Amino acid sequence: MEHLTFLKAGVLEDLSFECEPLIPPVLSKDIFLEEIINTDQWKQAKRLTTNFHIANISDLMHFRSLDVYFGSINRKDAMYIRNSCKTIPEFEKCSFRGYFDNYKGFIEELLHSGEIHCKGDYYQDGFLRISVDRNCITFEKIN
User: Fold this and answer.
1) Which parts of 24-142 are beta strand (E)?
2) What is the β-pairing status of strands 65-69 and 93-97?
3) Distances from the Cα of 68 to the Cα of 52, 89, 93, 136, angstroms
4) Judging by DSSP bridges, how do beta strands 47-53 and 65-69 pair with one another?
């Protein structure tokens, strides 16, 4: 963490944080992440990859590309992500990994909204392609 502050914010574009599941202890990961999220380097970075659990979606929605662990996403979260993706300059893709035991119900809720349509093995709304399975939800810009 102490090395991150030596890098000029805005120059550092990619962030990647990986750790073993229980090493260091979860509390240490939470403190580490809380410190990083408050840095200018975090706020100005463009891409993030991590297996850390991120609790607050709003801390993530400035990245143009994102691959993170997120325990559960409901329809409200998905709509927030979807709407945020449309406002991120040069948005590419964001993936939320975890175990989504009710992903079929999640899909039904999205389809019921009438704003998202099934296109075979994925869903789209004209701007985003949304792929959903038990382990990952991905929002990707349609070119």
Assistant:
1) 47-53, 65-69, 93-97, 117-118, 123-124, 128-132, 136-141
2) parallel
3) 7, 20, 11, 10
4) parallel
Whole-Å CA distances, 13 to 16, 32, 49, 93, 134: 10, 19, 12, 15, 30
Residue with tokens 């840095």: 39
Q: Is 27 exposed, middle or buried (0-12, 13-18, 19+ CB in 10 A)?
A: exposed
Digit-coded pLDDT (tens) for 111-129: 777 777 888 888 888 888 9
The 8-class DSSP code of residue 57 comes to G
Measured CA to CA, the distance from residue 80 to residue 58 in angstroms comes to 9
Residue 38: other Cβ atoms inside 10 A: 10
For residues 2 and 39, give the distance between their C-alpha atoms in angstroms, rounded to a whole number: 11
Phi/psi of residue 63, nearest 5 degrees: -75, 140
In angstroms, rounded to a whole number, what is the distance separating the alpha carbons of residues 81 and 88?
10
Residues of the chain with pLDDT under 70: 1-6, 20-32, 101-106, 110
